[in-house]
Structure formats: structure tokens, C-alpha cells
Specification:
- By secondary structure, this protein is α/β, with parallel strands linked by helices.
- It has two domains: 3-259 and 458-475, Aldehyde Dehydrogenase, Chain A, domain 1 (3-Layer(aba) Sandwich), CATH 3.40.605.10; 263-439, 3-Layer(aba) Sandwich (Aldehyde Dehydrogenase, Chain A, domain 2).
- Helix content is 39%, strand content 23%.
- The strands form nine sheets. A seven-stranded mixed sheet has the order 16-19-20-15-14-22-23, sandwiched between helices.
- Helix 9 (273-285) links the parallel strand 14 and strand 15 (295-301).
- The longest helix has 23 residues, at 102-124.
- It is globular and about 75 Å long.
- The structure holds glyceraldehyde-3-phosphate (G3H).
- Glyceraldehyde-3-phosphate is lined by residues 162-163, 291-293, 444-446.
Amino acid sequence: MFDEIKLNKEYKYFDGCRWVHSAEYRKIEIKNPVDDSVVGCIQNCTGDEIIRVVETLKEGQKRWASKTIDERATILDKAADIIESQVDFIGNILCREIAKPLNDAKEEILRSAQITRFTSHSVRTIEGQYLQSGVFYNTKNNKQCLVKREPLGIVLAISPFNYPVNLSCSKIAPALASGNAVILKPPLEGAISAFHLVQCFLEAGVPGGVIATVTGESKKIGDILVPHEDISCISFTGSTSTGEIIARKAGIKKLLFELGGNGTAIILDDCDLEKTINDVIPGAFSYSGQRCTAIKRLLVQDKIAGRAIALMKKKIEKLSVGSPLKNNDITPLVGLHHAEFVENLINGAKRGGAKIITGGRRKGNLIEPTLIDKVDPGMSIANVEQFGPVLPVIRFKKIDEAIEITNTTKYGLQSCVFTQDIDKAFYIAERILTGTMNINCAPSRGPDTFPFLGVKKSGIGVQGIKDSILEMTREKVIVIKTSKNLSK
Ligand code: G3H
């Protein structure tokens, strides 16, 4: 099933109709973050090739949009089955490409199948509206208004390295379901797994001219596609700085962005500490902290700080460290530059007077799971999106102090509070500037049926299965004037 997408170790790009090689002879190597071995090479698309992809999809999208919702949804159902049947195969490639623990990598593929299946279900339930005149001043009962939803056109889907399959799928599925064509620009690390996902959609019957992949130099691709007038929507997950560049270049088109996060967990002294820490540890350390919803700052109320730190130290020291193929909890970060960045943040915190409770060292691109106490809210480690297996602890006394510290970050994706007092939980939830506030659970994008959004520098628009369909369609209003006043 995947024979066409590569020749030996060289993966092609899908130009809208076929998997092909780029005319550019220089290819890009994708290396395993664990041992630097080459997983495969991908194409470095030329400017002309990228422009031709848009032209192909412009025509194909019209044919795709004219299909019935049932026809498109049925193809998505088939795609979901195919993706599910390839969990092991694609999961294995994903594990080698981005060093995600094997079981988590397989879970990512399964979740993608479920997103596709549920998108098919959701698109069938999208409803229009009927309105009538005569409710506003100076109007008669002679106008009827129908509101339906239409696809936007071509969606440019730009996905990140940490969920290259799932976050490609959560863009492709709603785009296709609602009649759009999609150009996928996958991340470099994870591109090969994403190609396999695309092939699953093609195998399910997505026709030519509806989906394409482009790979190569991000800046070149962005310069061509982002401002292109035939691109109607950009669905991007990635850093705030890249999001800002895209937004400046895009011009007038729909932007759907999930950007950085710097999630805060607030632990009040009345919480069930054991249960809380059981949520906080995976919330901070799963996939070695390389999740935009990961807990990046832990605010602990003074009275329980000593106990909380002792408990976390014990649990963190039990996390296994090593190969993703063996399902270790902590695996090498996706790149050396990235690990060095995290190491610098740890060292900066140390120099500023914070105390390393456990971990703190780097070996190659592997960072030990690290707990740091006595972090000052002004330190870089507490303010930038560090994307590593590091949990900085900030102690606080009063609830309002915790709210103030949480709100100092430029991000606003998700945060959480742990307490047994529902009044305190609501008091805090209503005052934190965030897309989602979790009470007694760690931040998370899923379940994917929930709306997922960021405020401040964390995003624009709302994702989630139904929300993404709504964002990738627009309302079309049809007004009918009747010659007779319709009131009886
Ligand atoms: O990294 C960003 C992802 O959207 C986070 O998803 O909460 O399922 O890990 P997650």
C-alpha cells in the first residue's frame, strides 16, 4: 500500500495527482534523534512545483466540493479504517522519526483514525439556519433567509514535529469533510509518517486534485503559499514566533492557529496531594515535555510545598529514561539544538538561585527529567516555552498571587488548578486568561470533541472536531424576497 510513496529510502511528494520526485537534486535527510541514523530522505520542492500544486488543487477542489456530504464522509470512514489497520506500521516509523515512545506513537495513529471517523460523523450533523424578516424594525414579513455552510477553498495545513500524524490528521479530516482541498506542509521531523497518513486518505478514495504534500525549505514554501491568493485558510500548529510571521504575510484569509503554551498548574493546600501529583507528573513529562499543553510551571501553595516536592522527586526518579522503542518515559529530544536550549534554561535558573531537586543534566539530546524548586516567576525557565522534561516550581502564599503569576505569561493555551474546594476552583478559573482551564486534571487537547483554543499569543480560532469543520467553512446567506407579505 505504501510502495508508491518512496523509492528505496527516498520519499516523494504528492503533487495532487501522483507521488513524484522533485526536480531539485538536493534531498533532505530525516534522522532518528536517538542515534542519528537516516530514516529516509524527503524532497526539496522547487518554487514551480509548489505553484503547480496550487493550480492542480484549485481545479480539484471544485469537483470535490460538488460531491455530497455523504460521499465525502464515506471516504473518511474508509480512511479511518485504513489508518487503524496501519497503527503498528506507521507507529513504528513515527517512533524512529521523532523518538516518541512506541506505545504513544501507536496511540497517536489510533487517535488519528478516531478523529477521522468522528469527523465523518460530525460533518453529517452540521446544520444550516432559517430566518425571516419582520423581527427587525421597519421590515415586513416578505423576506426569507437561508444560511448554509460552504467550504473555504484550499486549506494550507502546517503541522508540528510533536504530533506529525495526529495534528496533520486533525487538519486534513475536517478540511476534506467540508469540501476543501488541502496542501499539507508537514514538519521535517515526522514528514515520513505524515506521508503515510496522506496515502491512507488516497487509498480510501480521495480523488486526484484534492490533497497534496509539499516539503523542503520552510521559508521558501511559506513565502509562496502563505500570501497566495488561492489559499483560503491556513491551519497552523507551531511556535508563536512562526505564527506571527505567517499572520503578517498571509493577507486576507482565514487563520486557524494553535501556537505556543506555557501551562501553569496551581496546587492549593487543600488538594488530594497524591492524586494531584499522579496527574501532574505525566502532565509535565509525557513525550519528554514536548507538548504545547504540557505543564510548564507548577505553582504550589507554601504550606504543602515541602511534601509536594518530596513526592514529585520520588516519582520523577522512577521515570525510565532511554530508547523510545523500549517505551521509556523520557526519550531524547527531537534535536540537539533543542536540548541545548533547555539545558541553558536550567543553568540560567541555577545561576539565579533556583534549586535543582533532581535531574538537570544533558547527554547529547537527552535531558534528564528535572525538578527545580524556588524558581522565581521572572526567570526565563518560567516564561518561555521550554519544551523539555523540566518542571519548575514556584511557591506562593495567597490565591490571588497564584492568579497574578499565571497571568503574567504571554501565552494562554491551557492551565489547571487542583483543589477540593469548588468555589476556589471557580474563582481561579474565571480569572485566568486561558483558552481552557482544567479543574483537578492536567491540561490536554483531548478529548478531541472538546473545543481547543488559545488566547493571547497562543492562537487564533477554535479547533476540535466540530469546531474545525465550522472554522473551515463559511456561512453562505441566501435571501428570498416574496412579492406577497407572507403573514396570514
Ligand atoms: O502539542 C500540542 C498538542 O496539541 C497537545 O496535544 O494535549 O493531546 O498532548 P495533547
